[in-house]
Amino acid sequence: MTVITEKLEAGSQSALLENPGNTKSVCPNCESAKMEPFYEVKGIPVHSVLLMPTRDHAANYPKGDLKLGFCPCCGFVSNMVFDPKVHEYSTSCEESQGFSPTFSSFARKLARRWVEDYDLHGKTVLEIGCGKGEFLAMMVEEGAGEGIGMDPAFVPERLDTPVSSHLAFIQDLYDERYTHLSADAICCRHTLEHISPTSSFMRMVRKTIGDRPDTVLLFELPDVYRVLKEAAFWDIYYEHCSYFTTGSLARLFRKHGFDPLELELEYDDQYIVIAGRPNSGKPSPKLAGEDDLESVRLEMRRFAERFRIQKESWLGRLNELRADGKRTVLWGGGSKAVSFLTTLGLTEQIDFVVDINPHKHGKFVPGTGHAVKSPEALRTEKPDCVVLMNPIYLKEVGAQLSGMGLSPDIIPV
Ligand SMILES: [Zn+2]
């Protein structure tokens, strides 16, 4: 495995860091229309995947505001007051979901399918925002020839794979300095939602591809249509400045000269999976899911009222449990938990947070300062209720609890 820690000199300021942090009213996705604000939360932690060593550190972590805007032209949703300068992506980011068997098995199947469907056998895959490198390793294990991963949060010791001699990692952010890299597939999973100027990003990706029209783009990211429809406010947090639906993502691809080849919802319809190739002249026919502008607009307009009802309902339920002397814990110490806790302003209603990722144990949740413990801690703490931050893990978490002889009420969000 090759690991490059030395960063290329920045010739000019990175295109991804150009944003001033003031209210941005022009859509960063289509650069044409004015965004319409529709949801606001003030004073939320600017980071929810950074580990906090002490409760004080967690409680005093820098906070920022979030003001979601909707673009009437392309359907894009983004935080209009996002300031990218506050972020510190580094090796202390604990974004990996690879400790969950449910998530790992989904990722494995996706890696296998992409290698098969786009014939990546023996070919080179570049992954932008590769995290700890698990998925890139899976692509190579499933038949791809070489993998190049880019992420400042990559940690070599954390990756255990038999194909490490076919992998190279650059511990840096992808920007103009890296558009010379060459690959047969460019993969980008759970990364575009962290990038504010999405249009500039796609221009760089197009530049990286150059005159190789066979290069395939493979992207995966959360679907905001479900979030709007279910008022799933815990899926809205500071690091996610950009929110897509199938339609707005496909429109971004087409605007930058890519024909969408597949456009699917996966992982219980939580994630959008899109593949695309440089357009060869005349645009390809539209795929199902591309024409969603009117339905997204409708759900956006209903969001504020739905959120108010959700918030009241959760606060009522959790306060009642507390008043009845019941012990409630939260399962899942990721960004969803941070958003759930801070948006509802929860304190003693939740005893602590449980997570299966051992790198999080003994640490604290940014914002509210709740402690993160291992599931094993529940043997002695014996909660009455477990609020599960992602319903897809219901079976996995239920089995783990009953394996410990515990049968608390599980309340999925
Ligand atoms: Zn737009």
UniProtKB/TrEMBL annotation:
Alphabetic keyword roster: Methyltransferase, Transferase
SUPFAM superfamilies linked: S-adenosyl-L-methionine-dependent methyltransferases
Matching Pfam families: Methyltransf_14, Methyltransf_23
Single GO molecular function: methyltransferase activity
Chain ranges of the C-methyltransferase domain: 300-402
An example Gene Ontology biological process: methylation
Name of the protein described by the UniProt record: Methyltransferase domain-containing protein
Organism annotation: Pelagicoccus mobilis
